[in-house]
Amino acid sequence: MTIDLDRPYPLGARQITDYRRDGFIKLKQVFDADELAHYGEEITRLTIALNTQTKPLEERSTYDRAFLQVMNLWEESDTVREFVFGRRLAGLAAALMEVDGVRLYHDQSLYKEPGGGITPAHADQYYWPVTSDRTITAWVPLQAVPQDMGPLAFFAGSQHVEFGRDLEISDESERAITANMQAHGFRVVDEPFALGEVSFHSGWTFHRAGPNRSTKPRSVMTVIYMDRDMRLKAPDNHMQQADWERWCPGARVGEVIDTPKNPVLFERA
């Protein structure tokens, strides 16, 4: 089987405008069934092998009930490296952010087990020591995600709201951010994902997911991209300090995050 993950995905000006307005977008048929099956098998194998969660669901915190997660699988497998380094996804990230190139921040598999709980409302960039909002996450389901599996849901246009940016994922973030989103009247987009459908959301776009009420795991691979010229900022919290040390080792405050863990994955010709 021949797979070309560098083949561009056609993206129109209207879609870029929609992303700029809403802080997220869902794109259909980014991957086909064969591609997802091929890479999904290896991603699943590594997620099961490398995750360190041993407690039963009922004994875990809200955060730990949300999903099993393993980061930087690209360093563990040439097959996953092919997927994470593919120019199709990276090119979409660059186009949506309207930048000349993107670097890898890190990848992350997110497996919501059968019976797994909600993913509380949050904004990803709370965790990232970066100087601008030119960050984006590609959320790639490895199977279709019907409503009872807990698809990712977005508060459209919320990327401009300051309230809640200082809250890590928790029961408190779910309560406070959801209440604030409702007070602002933000539209909630909570819909199934078809097979091959991928979403992209900005680092400051608030989002959440429902529980997995199905009998199968909700298997998802994510890739987090940042502007090629992104600079490191002094951490605002202990989570950003930890991210600096883990995902940007050797980077210096005020300088471009150019480390072996943060390669450039796409540049415009």
From TrEMBL:
<keyword id="KW-0560">Oxidoreductase</keyword>
<dbReference type="Pfam" id="PF05721">
    <property type="entry name" value="PhyH"/>
</dbReference>
<dbReference type="GO" id="GO:0005506">
    <property type="term" value="F:iron ion binding"/>
</dbReference>
<protein>
    <submittedName>
        <fullName>Ectoine hydroxylase-related dioxygenase (Phytanoyl-CoA dioxygenase family)</fullName>
    </submittedName>
</protein>
<keyword id="KW-0223">Dioxygenase</keyword>
<dbReference type="GO" id="GO:0016706">
    <property type="term" value="F:2-oxoglutarate-dependent dioxygenase activity"/>
</dbReference>
<dbReference type="InterPro" id="IPR008775">
    <property type="entry name" value="Phytyl_CoA_dOase-like"/>
</dbReference>
